[in-house]
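Internal QA ticket QA-208
Title: Verify multi-chain structure generation after dependency bump
Assignee: T.L.

Test input:
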Amino acid sequence: GAGVSQTPSNKVTEKGKYVELRCDPISGHTALYWYRQSLGQGPEFLIYFQGTGAADDSGLPNDRFFAVRPEGSVSTLKIQRTERGDSAVYLCASSQSPAKGYEQFFGPGTRLTVL
Amino acid sequence: GQSLEQPSEVTAVEGAIVQINCTYQTSGFYGLSWYQQHDGGAPTFLSYNALDGLEETGRFSSFLSRSDSYGYLLLQELQMKDSASYFCAVRDSSASKIIFGSGTRLSIRP
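Actual output:
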């Protein structure tokens, strides 16, 4: 594809529910990143994939958050038992390789609202 | 850990020059990136400095001083479309991810 795509663009859920957010990176990009961004803040790192494996998940806030990238392309961020504090824009980015991780291409984000 | 500091807001006049500073503290350092984000949009990559000195890309330039843990983004010939948030981001010791600052909101007056 031409760029990074994310679905859905908006997700409204109730506290306690489970949500899945999808990211489709640029074709051929081996590195994939998830971030969370709150209003007026910079993107907050969550997890980084190199290929199929999570190379760095140090940013995941707790065990309710989990992400997968089973075939080294599309990734899904999964949030269990959502809380109101999880409301934010979830951004996905990809880079050509880990060596070029300083230049990331971002998707439009998924705005998650937990009621 | 890492920390980055940049001004929260800057205002400038159309056609002028503005400099956005960034200081950082990190346990390991590979380089400094700059990203632009318009309201409601996605961050877009502007520049990267791994070595000391000035990198120029059109109207935008970025500078790094590793010894001072300091960098800046210089925007020349400001246009109204440059109104956006600008983030500096350090590439940390693992070199596998970048950590973003809180951003500088640039407002441009006619």
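Spot checks passed. Chain A touches chain B through 28 residues (CB under 8 Å).
Status: verified.
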